[in-house]
Amino acid sequence: MSNNKQLNEQELIRFIAEKSNADEKQIQLVLKYEKAYILKAEENAKGEVDIDSDDLIDHILSRPDVKLTELAVDTILEAEMDYLMKHGFAGYID
């Protein structure tokens, strides 16, 4: 059974903005750098990518155009995951 859902990026950004009170431009930057980081990550034998959230946050904070605190970046990423899980796009691996 294929998943035909389309991720609505504007809805995602609005959801994150409501949860985090962060500026939408900063949210877009965080999501852009997160995506680039994940795309560079190595897949394991099962084709899964294991991302260390602390390393991801450090990577995002190291970008010169990101003007957020560590807590703000973490809040944005948590809100994104809440949205993705709520809409069936993601889940946690035990």
What's the short version?
By secondary structure, the protein is mainly α.
List the topology elements.
Elements (H helix, E strand, L loop, with lengths): L8 H12 L3 H17 L12 H9 L8 H17 L8
Helix pairs in contact: 1-4, 2-3
Specify the number of helices.
4
Query: Main beta sheet, described?
Result: none
Overall shape: it is globular
Poorly predicted runs are none
Strand tally is 0
**Share of β-strand residues:** under 5%
Measured distance between first and last alpha carbons: 23 Å
- The string of secondary-structure elements, in order, is HHHH
Query: Based on helices, strands and strand pairing, what is the structural class?
Result: mainly alpha
Summed over residues and divided by their number, the pLDDT gives a mean of 89
**Helix share bin:** 55-70%
| Radius of gyration over all CA atoms, rounded | 14 Å
Describe the structure.
- The protein has 94 residues and is mostly helical.
- The chain has 4 helices and no strands.
- The chain has helices at 9-20, 24-40, 53-61, 70-86.
- Helix 1 (9-20) packs across helix 4 (70-86) and helix 2 (24-40) packs across helix 3 (53-61).
- The mean pLDDT is 89.
Characteristics:
94 residues; mainly alpha; 0% strand; globular
